[in-house]
Amino acid sequence: MLSSSPKVTLPVLPEIIDGLPNISGWEKEVNLVVSRNEPVFLPTTNLRLEDISAGFAIALHMHQPTIPAGSNGEFQSNLQYMFEHPQEGDNHNAEPFAYCYSRMGDFIPELVANGCNPRVMLDYSGNLLWGLGQMGRGDILDNLKRITIDPTYQPYVEWLGTMWSHAVVPSTPIPDIKLHIQAWQHYFAAIFGWDALARVKGFSPPEMHLPNHPDTFFEFVKALKECGYKWLMVQEHSVESLTGQSLQYKHLPHRLVARNSKGETLSITALIKTQGSDTKLVGQMQPYYEAKTLSRQQLGKISVPPIVTQIGDGENGGVMMNEFPSAFKKAWYEMSGTGTVGMTGTEYLELIEAAGCTPDDYPTCQPIGQHQIWERVADNYTPEAVANAIEELKQTNSNFHMDGASWTNNLSWVKGYENVLTPMNQLSALFHQKVEMKEGVTQESRYREALMNNLLLQTSCFRYWGQGVWTDYAREIYRRGEASLKSNF
């Protein structure tokens, strides 16, 4: 077990407290664990950088929203609802979905036992993990624990952090961004333990939705760094060079620069997710086959293998359900430990940095559209100058917006959803108005309930499926959240 010093042992965290998911209360301990800087994969990797011509990294994104749809209106996982209402839509796929959440716990041990060298990155929303526990699906969680906790399989699997309830960052109230990140870390540590949390160094934003408003993006990067994250996965077309061009070196890590309206800057390493969101890219192992066409590139003074990075839904659609298992296994049986290899994101970064690369060597990028802002602002960094530049650009360019960019361009999480966004922002404001952040309050059940309602209302699903039952769910969560805050604080 991790300890902060020889005299201090970290507590074993409960998953559920007073019927609520453990998403707060141990902020100091979480910060202590995630702030550790020792290498994660370097001590155990069986890859040698000099033997690799190109690499690829694949991530599987998994999520089910929490909805107020139990028999008496209780919160439950949408997966549970699917099991209970098999005649609706594609709910007959509930068990195949459940198996998809579990199957990496079978695939990785099988491949390792057969002499293969597999790699996978896993991105599970916090409320999916909570929902699996609510449903009594310990079988799924135990399968995931096997490849997360057992040292035999740790070198092959990387977990990515995310927002606890799958909130898209650009439209999340800024004060809540860090709360989502920390809530996920709390719940992950409660399920998988402190050692597992210490190994989570990459972040996967829901829907690959990257903020491009300077202040929102700056606060996002600031929160990531404060929460111990070393790198972020970003969609290729959601970023641009510092001169406003498309990326030239999309298979190399980038230094993603955040500048706010006061001119303050931060940066974080980014791995570039290429192409679109089609699950066929992961389902048919396209990153592997693309990597086979690539060769080493120069990064600073070091020759490094490029890396093809891709993420897709791990359960959604026929390709992922039916074609992915055989394609995944076939690729690993084909590979040796040299030439084209699979890697995890942190493993790749640790290998190239051990060879002498530093983030200062990486090509730079920034969120899409920011070059136009900084051109107008020049060196006059003030909130007013940035706001004026944004307004001018909106007036002169109908395509310019500050809604961020995600892995799909044909959907908006803002337009047409004022009836969700307005209550969402109102509940967040009420939460921060009512809750006095004094010592110990985050361990109180009334705080945890208020936080849970606030974060759940920000789930992207309530702004994805159009008006109807999903926006009704949002209104009900708002009602409960408001009532809880007014009666408990």
TrEMBL record:
**Keyword vocabulary terms for this entry:** Hydrolase
* Keyword check for NAD: no
Q: Which domain of life is it from?
A: Bacteria
Does the keyword Phosphoprotein belong to this entry?
no
Coiled-coil segments:
none
Stored InterPro entries? GH57_Enzymes (IPR052046), Glyco_hydro/deAcase_b/a-brl (IPR011330)
The GO molecular function terms of this record are:
hydrolase activity
Instruction: Give the PANTHER family listed for this entry.
Output: ALPHA-AMYLASE-RELATED-RELATED, SLR1535 PROTEIN
What is this protein called in UniProt?
Answer: Glycosyl hydrolase family 57
Organism of provenance: Funiculus sociatus GB2-A5
